[in-house]
Design brief:
With 391 residues, the chain is an alpha+beta fold. The chain contains 12 helices and 13 strands. The longest helix is centred in the N-terminal third of the chain and has 17 residues.
Length: 391
């Protein structure tokens, strides 16, 4: 997806303005802590990017830079606003849509074993669930967002309403039924629209062909072999197990004022195979390095993750930016592949140049984690690591 330098600067300026205007809570900034450093950033010093947290847009940030060009690790901000204790650099967090990379890798492994055919239709695997209007949607189209199935939709229309329903349980089959009961957005394979629903269906296909749960398949195929001991699917658990830095969201409070609410405990069954994973920066860095080195998905199937469909985005008309599991942007004159994720209180990203020269993993405790524009701190980290978008 093309983004001009002027557009990026405008977005960054807007994020800076919003970050100041949105703040209704007085913050006492904690110093950034760099606990290993051996690589210069592509732009501003990374310590400077996260210095001064907490601030209006984020309360904490955990960052790891790796790859053949060197390594850097840093953290800043607070564990929670009540105590002001420093952020725990080893803490777990909600990875959001970074989950999609794990789901895509699991499906591709099954494809390598001949148990899933990417060109076979989703309906052939789930005939009782996928109706005739979506009979031609293939597994590959589920994974690269060219399927044309609309979002399932959730009750409520504001963050306050969603917060009230944060413990609601959403069964994946019911979400698929709600989505597929609607008319298709476009003929499959002709446009791209980034949505969760394709990965919800993909998770159900994993269960159908293996006779096992999606969660156990991800654990057996990815988490356990790579030693990702702090990464897990929470299921119906609304809390994060073990140590975590609290996440906050700006919203209307009971007294009618606008302020920050602790949203660390929030169910994620609506995300499931599209967005429920909990992880750490160390685990995600290990996963990213293994994935890009071909140690998770091997051979030609790995290229599915680095191949953009030749279609236009459904909304903007720009060239497709999402592959199977990943997305691509040209930053600092080179292709950067990765995935971002957002759950209330948490923004996460993994990114890497194609051959692992420079990797980035961050968790930002964003107070606008599901906002329309990219969080200020997250955007600055991406630009500092790789540089401005290429023309």
């Amino acid at each position: 997806m093309r983004t001009t330098k002027r557009t990026t600067r405008t977005l960054l300026a807007a994020a800076l303005v919003l970050g100041v205007a949105a703040g209704t809570t007085a913050f006492s900034p904690a110093p950034a802590v760099a606990f290993a450093e051996a690589v210069p950033a592509a732009g501003p010093d990374l310590s400077a990017v996260i210095a001064g947290l907490p601030r209006a847009d984020a309360t904490a940030a955990l960052v790891r830079i790796g790859g053949t060009e060197g390594a850097w690790e840093g953290s800043a901000g607070v564990h929670d606003l009540e105590t002001g204790a420093p952020a725990d650099p080893t803490a777990r967090f909600r990875a959001g849509s970074v989950t999609k990379v794990f789901t895509a890798a699991t499906v591709l492994q099954l494809a390598a074993e001949g148990r899933i055919d990417l060109d076979r239709t989703a309906r052939s695997y789930l005939p009782e669930l996928i109706p005739g209007r979506y009979a031609t949607v293939t597994v590959r189209q589920l994974l690269n967002h060219t399927h044309g199935i609309p979002a399932a939709g959730m009750p409520g229309g504001t963050v306050e309403e969603w917060y009230e329903n944060r413990f609601a349980v959403h069964e994946p089959e019911e979400m698929v039924r709600r989505a597929t009961a609607k008319p298709r957005e476009f003929r499959p394979g002709t446009r791209q629209h980034y949505l969760n629903i394709g990965y919800t269906i993909a998770g159900l296909i994993v269960e159908r062909v293996t006779g096992d749960s999606y969660e156990k398949q991800v654990e057996r195929r990815i988490l356990r072999p790579l030693g990702l001991r702090d990464t897990y699917s929470p299921g119906r658990e609304a809390a994060i197990r073990g140590p975590y830095n609290h996440g906050y969201q700006l919203m209307r409070l009971e007294d009618g004022t606008t302020g920050l609410r602790d949203v660390s405990v929030w169910g994620t069954t609506d995300g499931w195979a599209a967005g429920d994973l909990i992880s750490t920066t160390a685990d995600l860095e290990r996963f990213t390095r293994a994935l890009f080195a071909g140690r998770v998905v091997c051979g030609p199937l790995l290229e599915e993750m680095f191949t953009l469909p030749k279609v236009a985005d459904f909304g903007s008309g720009d060239p497709a930016a999402y592959s199977v599991g990943l997305s691509m942007k040209r930053l600092g004159g080179r292709e950067v592949w990765g995935k971002t994720g957002g759950r209330w209180g948490y923004n996460t990203a993994i990114a890497s140049t194609r051959h692992g020269e420079r990797t980035l993993v961050y968790s930002v405790n964003a107070t606008d984690a599901k906002g329309q524009s990219m969080n200020r701190t997250a955007l600055e980290l991406m630009l500092a690591t790789y540089g401005l978008p290429s023309e």
